[in-house]
Amino acid sequence: MYNLVVFASGNGSTLQSIIDNIKSHRLEARINLVVSDNENAYALERARENDIDTYVIKSEDKLLSVLEGYEINLIVLAGYLKMIGPKLIEKYTIINTHPSLLPNYGGKGMYGMNVHRTVVEAKEKFTGPTVHFVNSKYDEGKIISQTKVEILEDDTPEDVSDKVQAIEKIQLNQVLNKFVKGEIKNV
Ligand code: GAR
User: Fold this and answer.
1) 98 catalytic per annotation
2) pLDDT band at 187; cut points 50, 70, 90
3) What structural domains does the chain harbor?
4) Span from the CA of 15 to the centroid of ligand 1 (angstroms)
5) For the chain, how big is the Rg over CA atoms in Å?
6) Distance between Cα 153 and ligand 1 center (Å)
7) Tell me: the pLDDT tens digits for 2-48?
8) Cβ of 98 less than 6 Å from ligand 1
9) What is the pTM of this model?
10) Which of 9, 94, 95, 97 most suits a substitution to test ligand 1, by most atoms within 8 Å of the C-beta?
């Protein structure tokens, strides 16, 4: 079985999409653990409802020792806010999903609705989610997949967020399927 660990800081709708894909056998994998840096993350509730182990961890050393107890093929950052430390990057294959067409609108502070607001203010014609490998530079790892989404003239940041999030879940689960099948390997 292909073993995933998901890191999430917030609502966890991306985590939920992975859970749903696994349950409906569209993704032959299992989530062994959900980690958050935020004890109030709704993602934790979603994990518990599905009998997935959860941990709230804030330091890298604690994270490393907890992860040692699990089989892990891939770590997925699904709306995770905290910077990933160098020891973790060294030891595991880690991917992130980001809600803009990187390298545009990435980097510090570019998270969730902030990204969509900035994109709309800049009057961009296109945006879209990116899945990429995580390396030591924030949002700069090798790009695995991107999908373009058109922004209409009267789209609000909320409209853009809805469109991007819907496509983002499909894209991420397609990428995960490729990892499971061995079609994508580490960088
Ligand atoms: C997702 O759109 C993800 O791309 C974004 O946060 C959202 C999480 O939603 N991540 C980033 O912006 C990372 N820089 P969720 O909590 O409902 O899964």
Assistant:
1) yes
2) low
3) 2-101+129-146+164-180 (3.40.50.170)
4) 10
5) 16
6) 24
7) 999 999 999 999 999 999 999 999 999 999 999 999 999 999 999 99
8) yes
9) 0.96
10) 97
